[in-house]
Design goal:
16 helices; 4-stranded parallel beta sheet; 53% helix; alpha/beta; globular; TIM Barrel
Length: 339
């Protein structure tokens, strides 16, 4: 089977994808009309143009618009259903999904309990209808006050028995180091909730070190700028701390000038634990399937290398060991059948 067909059909796991950042243009238009929110762009084509990354403030502005358009718990359930149906189409059987509940709370007063219940209704629907599963990663946006971060941490802990698998940290790294939210992540750690912060994307190695030493991260969102510090690379390799690499996102955010100049081959050569992810798919005009196509074509990765990256994602997930083993067996059988 040709590598492109193999990628299309193979089962997948995604560990770094934002629910709000997965809202498709036509979905946003429907939400805006439903909730009488004025958009700067009126058609799906215009919205795709508006989605195009220019700088981080613009990126945050898009997220704020998403929050304004999500007026009710039913809206949140709808975008979660749309997202999970999209994952199912790509044969992404399990996703760990980042979601920013404080934005919805501040914009429209929707309680975290109501937000989580809405997402879990979508989760139950997706499991029954499409056979796909998800874990939720509520994240703290770096630009909020640390006390608000503590609120998000308590919410995440309260949701641990109801689909929440980790606490995340997102947003613009420069000027907002991981240490700013040390207390929030201590709340999570004391409850046994893992930390999966973004680090080493718009800031360098110091951000990754803060995520490891202060937040006790079990995985790093992005982490590609670790290569600027040889000692950090050695530590990540020795401890096999997974990196959630999002190639197209890195290009759009100008972390690298082009995909051909992306650090992925170097990260792999260094023996680091790499997973492949889409981040904010429609905002970067990508999907997880497209990410695999792109890295296969640009870097000449074959079936074995692609399969290894997929299995890395299974093993780096926050599923129980028993579920991981079952999924690894299922995936290996599927790979064998496709080959």
């Amino acid at each position: 089977m040709h590598i492109n067909q193999f990628i299309e059909k193979m089962p997948k796991v995604e560990l770094h994808v934002h629910m709000e950042g997965s809202i498709q243009p036509d979905t946003l238009i429907t939400l805006a009309e439903r909730n009488q929110v004025a958009l700067t762009a009126k058609t799906p084509a215009e919205l795709r143009q508006w989605y195009t990354f220019t700088d981080f403030p613009h990126f945050i502005d898009i997220y704020r618009t998403f929050a304004k358009c999500l007026r009710t718990a039913e809206d949140i359930e709808w975008i979660a259903r749309q997202f999970l149906a999209g994952q199912a189409k790509q044969n992404i059987l399990y996703s760990e999904v980042t979601y920013t509940p404080y934005s919805q709370y501040m914009a429209n007063g929707i309680s975290f309990e109501d937000q989580l219940a809405a997402i879990n209704r979508a989760r139950d629907w997706a499991r029954t209808t499409h056979g796909v599963e998800m874990g939720l990663v509520p994240d703290i946006s770096r630009d909020i006050d640390p006390k608000a971060g503590n609120i998000v941490a308590h919410w995440a802990v309260d949701g641990m028995q109801d689909g929440v698998v980790a606490l995340g940290l997102g947003g613009y790294e420069v000027g907002n180091p991981p240490e700013k939210f040390a207390e929030a992540f201590k709340i999570a750690q004391q409850a046994g909730l893992p930390a999966v912060p973004h680090a080493g994307e718009t800031a360098g190695p110091q951000s990754i070190l803060g995520a490891l030493d202060t937040l006790h991260a079990v995985r790093i969102g992005h982490g590609v700028r670790c290569l600027e510090d040889a000692n950090l690379v050695k530590r990540l390799r020795d401890q096999q701390i997974p990196l959630e690499v999002c190639p197209t996102s890195n290009i759009c955010l100008n972390v690298f000038p082009s995909l051909a100049e992306h650090a992925l081959p170097k990260l792999l050569d260094e023996g680091l634990y790499i997973t492949i992810n889409s981040d904010d798919p429609p905002m970067f005009n990508t999907t997880l399937t497209r990410e695999y196509h792109q890295i296969s074509q640009v870097f000449g990765l074959g079936q074995q290398q692609i399969m290894a990256l997929v299995l890395n994602a299974v093993k780096a997930s926050l599923l129980s060991e028993k579920k991981k083993q079952t999924m690894l067996t299922t995936f290996q059988s599927a790979f064998d059948a496709l080959k």
